[in-house]
């Protein structure tokens, strides 16, 4: 969440930032009103408590038993405090809720825009793959080669699930091995995190507001949420903890199965395995000092591009506009790979700088001379299953076979997938 003092001192800037991300700017005014009442109540409670403490000391110092008048005064103070404390608890709850509803403000260089149609392409690498035959999409290739089975997955689990089989499984784990090799070579610490986290920990990440909970699988009986990415459990791991400044930046790479309801995407990308309810993903998370987070963001994007160039898959880097940022992100870039079977670029990677928005909610700090501060938190994709689609479609051959990218062959154990 945002720094309350910042909102008090910059209400118009916060209104504009919230509106640019599609949030209701009146949230700011509601919070300011609640904040004023909360601070007034805190002052009143503190004043009454001080009066009660003085009164108690007077009673204890008295040489005779207190009169009924004094006892009545003590009961009156106690009742006033009780009433005000109950009111303060209600107002503080609303204060907290409204504060969490205000999104992270976009960084100043984020382009203004209402949705994904106004995102900005900042650079491209490679030229779209062309063939002297009509290219197939990944589902046709996968079904012909016995690699993808969405029909039986639909029978067993419902829509937006898929079985990956045979060489495609080897190819996926090759991607993950390659991603681990690159990131651990850069000093990232590998982690296999829990895929279920407490609901209050999920709430601390900032994805639940404005309908976000509708996209999550929630186990109400156990108060647990299935993570949408390893970022969720990697970040929450350090809730209520303080890093030593010398340890920053602290970088992790986590592998997890991910779960998303894909709420709001009804009828969108239903073909194949592009948008599933369950998929695997390797994810980077970095904890940094505030002054280093913009540089760290650039570094994470460079790693993502390095991976895509090694696969020799054409891509473009897209900067998200304000309306497509998401609640906790101050800045975000996507990498979109060229997918010839669909004749378009599709997102395979994202990389976000959430600054101190999540660390304030989860109370994650670092200690340096002069006191402690909130860390900045960033996340970025290494590989999910979407690059499998890009590999199948870009490396397909006229006979329906698929060449394995050279960088992955030592893990797959072959040069080509053939029917």
UniProtKB/TrEMBL annotation:
GO terms for molecular function: ATP binding; serine-tRNA ligase activity. PROSITE patterns: AA_TRNA_LIGASE_II (PS50862). It catalyses: tRNA(Ser) + L-serine + ATP = L-seryl-tRNA(Ser) + AMP + diphosphate + H(+); tRNA(Sec) + L-serine + ATP = L-seryl-tRNA(Sec) + AMP + diphosphate + H(+). Its main location: cytoplasm. Residues 38-65 form a coiled coil. GO terms for cellular component: cytoplasm. ATP binds at residues 260-262, 347-350. This is Serine--tRNA ligase. Gene3D superfamilies: Bira Bifunctional Protein, Domain 2, Serine-tRNA synthetase, tRNA binding domain. The gene is serS. It comes from candidate division CPR3 bacterium 4484_211.
């Amino acid at each position: 969440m945002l720094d309350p003092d910042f909102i008090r001192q910059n209400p118009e800037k916060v209104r504009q930032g919230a509106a640019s991300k599609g949030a209701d700017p009146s949230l700011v005014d509601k919070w300011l009103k609640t904040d004023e009442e909360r601070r007034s109540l805190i002052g009143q409670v503190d004043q009454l408590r001080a009066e009660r403490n003085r009164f108690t000391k007077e009673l204890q110092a008295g040489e005779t038993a207190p009169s009924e008048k004094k006892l009545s005064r003590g009961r009156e103070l106690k009742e006033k405090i009780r009433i005000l404390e109950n009111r303060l608890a209600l107002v503080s709850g609303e204060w907290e809720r409204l504060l969490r509803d205000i999104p992270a403000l976009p960084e100043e260089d984020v382009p203004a825009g209402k949705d994904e149609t106004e995102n900005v392409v900042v650079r491209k690498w490679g030229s779209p793959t062309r063939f002297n035959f009509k290219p197939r999409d990944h589902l046709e290739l996968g079904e012909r080669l016995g690699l993808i089975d969405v029909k039986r997955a639909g029978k067993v689990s419902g829509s937006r699930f898929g079985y990956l089989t045979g060489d495609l499984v080897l190819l996926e784990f090759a991607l993950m091995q390659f991603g681990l090799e690159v990131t651990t070579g850069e000093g990232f610490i590998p982690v296999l995190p829990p895929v279920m986290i407490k609901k209050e920990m999920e709430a601390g990440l900032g994805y639940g507001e404005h309908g976000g909970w509708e996209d999550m699988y929630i186990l109400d009986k156990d108060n647990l949420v299935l993570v949408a990415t390893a970022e969720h459990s990697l970040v929450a791991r350090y809730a209520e903890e303080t890093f030593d400044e010398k340890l920053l930046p602290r970088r992790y790479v986590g592998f997890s199965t991910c779960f998303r309801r894909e709420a709001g995407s009804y009828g969108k990308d239903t073909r194949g395995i592009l948008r599933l309810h369950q998929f695997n993903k390797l994810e980077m998370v970095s904890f940094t000092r505030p002054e280093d987070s913009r540089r760290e963001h650039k570094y994470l994007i460079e790693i993502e591009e390095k991976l895509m160039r090694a696969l020799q898959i054409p891509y473009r880097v897209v900067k998200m506009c304000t309306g497509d940022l998401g609640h906790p992100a101050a800045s975000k870039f996507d990498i979109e790979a060229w997918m010839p079977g669909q004749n378009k670029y599709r997102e395979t990677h994202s990389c976000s700088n959430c600054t101190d928005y999540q660390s304030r909610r989860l109370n994650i700090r670092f200690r340096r001379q002069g006191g402690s501060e909130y860390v900045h938190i960033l996340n970025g994709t290494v590989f999910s299953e979407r690059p499998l689609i890009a590999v199948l479609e870009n490396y397909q051959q006229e006979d329906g076979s698929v060449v394995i990218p050279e960088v992955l062959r030592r893990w797959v154990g072959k040069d080509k997938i053939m029917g």
